[in-house]
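Hi there,

I know you've been waiting on this one. I reran it after we fixed the sequence typo, so this is the corrected version. Both the input and the resulting structure follow.
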Amino acid sequence: MWRFLLSLRWRVFPMLLSFLMSIHAQAATVRIKDITDMEGVRANQLIGYGLVVGLNGTGDRLTNSIFTRETLISMLNRLGVNIRDQETQLQTHDVAAVMVTADLPPFSHGGNRIDVTVSAAGDASSLTGGTLLVTPLMAADGEVYAVGQGSLATNAFSVRGAAATFTRNVPTTGHIANGAIVEREVPFDLGARQHIHISLRNPDLTTASRIASAIDRVFGPIATVQDPRTVVIDLSGRDAVGTLSRIGDLLIQPDTPAKVVVDEASGTIIMGADVRISTVAVAQGNLTVQVTETPEVAQPGPFSNGQTAVVPRTNIAVNTGSQHHLAVLRSGATLRDLVGGLNALGVGPRDMISILQAIKADGALQADLEMR
């Protein structure tokens, strides 16, 4: 029995080791389509102006929002309701003027539905429960590409009392899932393209070269690196759609530049794995003075003519940071060495930002330091 378990152990261990190594190898690679975009394949932004009705007294005040008043009157006139003579009596609070925005995805066809976002343009306090009326959505060329309409969902509420208010999320912005119908298509014939440009989302010459090499190994010499962001693919005589589909599934190992990103507002520090430090000595210490006042009450003795008095008691504590020592980071120190050394000094995120700036100023930080 023990011999069988020992034999099983030595059989399973290499399989487990191979499995873990394959997971590590796969974690270091990504698909080409996950880090690139194709030239011409993009969304188009749409915008429109419309009215939201059905609000529970939270709409625009028509005496303040003149554009809401004029839009409502014009819409009613188009529907055959003439209120020009009675417009001075138009005092509804259930209507709001809104701006409607949407993104038209690539390869959208007539009849497809897209999501829209509705935002108050006047002094409406909430769009909850409202309904967007028919709103044409135009692109930058002035043409109407979609028409939006539907009930809003704001996922917000506001409660107001005599002395306090509570608001969750933003009640003046709403969302309509599938709230617009595409009326016009953006022409783009992907199958007729003889050349296609693949654009890297994070430009890097090494990554672009690896993409071109991976494509050439499978399809032959059809990929050319034009610049750190662009790889040109020759699709002459090939099925463009099928070739691009296979290219998108190819695995590569992207290269990342050595960079340290610091957000001073929140004290956040992000370091890349390729950050290296030249030989440098680091010491960190702060002078902290703490003054504590603990006054005491002194009572006179029994049957005496003394008076009760308050006696001041002051305690002063000084911390010179003497427990922090000088640390030396050898040349070629990695990210792990840097973080471990600074943590050994008891350095917090705020002080670490100052140390990184000083190391960069000394020329010992072999990485790009980006402050935000």
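Quick highlight: The CA atoms of residues 77 and 83 lie 7 Å apart.

Best,
R. S.
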